[in-house]
Amino acid sequence: SRELLVLTYGALVAQLCKDYEKDEDVNTCLDRMGYGIGVRLIDDFLARSAVKKCHSYSETADVIAQVAFKMYLGVTPSVSCSSAAGNEFSLILDKNPLVDFVEELPAERASLCYCNLLCGVIRGALEMVHLAAEVTFLQDRLKGDAVTEIGITFLRKAEDRKHKRN
Amino acid sequence: MADEALFLLLHNEMVAGLYRAAEQGEGENGRCTTKLESMGFRVGQGLIERFTKDTARFKDELDIMKFICKDFWTTVFKKQIDNLRTNHQGIYVLQDNKFRLLTQMSAGKQYLEHAPKYLAFTCGLIRGGLLNLGIKSIVTAEVSSMPACK
């Protein structure tokens, strides 16, 4: 049941806030945990969904939004491409189930990225399919923005960089 | 079903993350277990509130324990407790022969000493649930052979 997941996540964030004073430390910790989850979740995802190989970054972003998010969190964010080069995408969530029981961030935790775990998960999962990416929160409803927006920037693969050096 | 995989992974990461932080920092192992247990405690309190909103009042302690074994366990772990024993003097033993959080680990003796870490959260879960139903309790866990636990 999703409530167990959401409540557990909330308890985890609360515990991390007690352990670490700085918001950045909590954010880093969440991201690292998310990464650990992502590298394992991708196996589960590929086994359950049997999606075929993606041939472009935009296809990958679509699969993440429409299949993965739907499967694990029950919501489907909308995808938009935000760069001409075609390697930057935004996932826009108007309903984020992880914050179902959270009303607002406490005043002393203003820069806490409550759902930073999600960024780590996406980053870890992509890395396991050999796609390096940077994933961050661009907008966050808990901080007063209208929607929650996650930005994925696909980085150039390591092989390209090697060629350039030669 | 997919949520379950996510919860399992999250739980395992939590255990690993907390112990990793303890190794680097000052905390000893005992504190990690306490932290995990208190996290489970909070979650247990919240969960039991949501589950029992519409159910009738419980007649006695045994009734509450049966609820935990059947409905609560099913909602959380998708199966019931396999065996409930009591001495009718306040001690109850719940046995689960295929504990969901331990099935992912190999069944040999190798990892037996690490198993308790994974049970701390669930102990807290039960303790929190019982407290909100009006019972003060101490919950301990014992693993003699994976993946069964008491």
Automatic annotation (TrEMBL), chain A:
SUPFAM superfamilies documented for this protein: Ligand-binding domain in the NO signalling and Golgi transport (SSF111126)
Localization of this protein: Endoplasmic reticulum; Golgi apparatus, cis-Golgi network
BP GO terms, sorted: Golgi vesicle transport
CDD domains to which the protein is assigned, alphabetical: TRAPPC3_bet3
Pfam hit, one: TRAPP
Any GO CC annotation of this UniProt entry: Golgi apparatus
UniProt keyword terms in alphabetical order: Endoplasmic reticulum, ER-Golgi transport, Golgi apparatus, Lipoprotein, Palmitate, Transport
Superkingdom of origin: Eukaryota
Main location (coarse class): endoplasmic reticulum
InterPro entries: Bet3, NO_sig/Golgi_transp_ligand-bd, TRAPP_component
Family membership noted in the UniProt record: Belongs to the TRAPP small subunits family. BET3 subfamily.
Function recorded in the entry: May play a role in vesicular transport from endoplasmic reticulum to Golgi.
Subunit structure: Homodimer. Component of the multisubunit TRAPP (transport protein particle) complex, which includes at least TRAPPC2, TRAPPC2L, TRAPPC3, TRAPPC3L, TRAPPC4, TRAPPC5, TRAPPC8, TRAPPC9, TRAPPC10, TRAPPC11 and TRAPPC12.
Protein's name according to its UniProt entry: Trafficking protein particle complex subunit 3-like protein
Organism: Syrrhaptes paradoxus (Pallas's sandgrouse)
Taxonomic lineage from the root: Eukaryota, Metazoa, Chordata, Craniata, Vertebrata
Gene name of the record: Trappc3l
Automatic annotation (TrEMBL), chain B:
Compartments it resides in: Endoplasmic reticulum; Golgi apparatus, cis-Golgi network
Keywords per UniProt: Endoplasmic reticulum, Golgi apparatus, Neurogenesis
Keyword Endoplasmic reticulum in record: yes
Highest taxon of the lineage: Eukaryota
Any GO BP: endoplasmic reticulum to Golgi vesicle-mediated transport
Classification via PANTHER family: TRAFFICKING PROTEIN PARTICLE COMPLEX SUBUNIT 6B
Family, similarity comment: Belongs to the TRAPP small subunits family. BET3 subfamily.
Designated name of the protein: Trafficking protein particle complex subunit 6B
UniProt lineage: Eukaryota, Metazoa, Chordata, Craniata, Vertebrata
Gene: Trappc6b
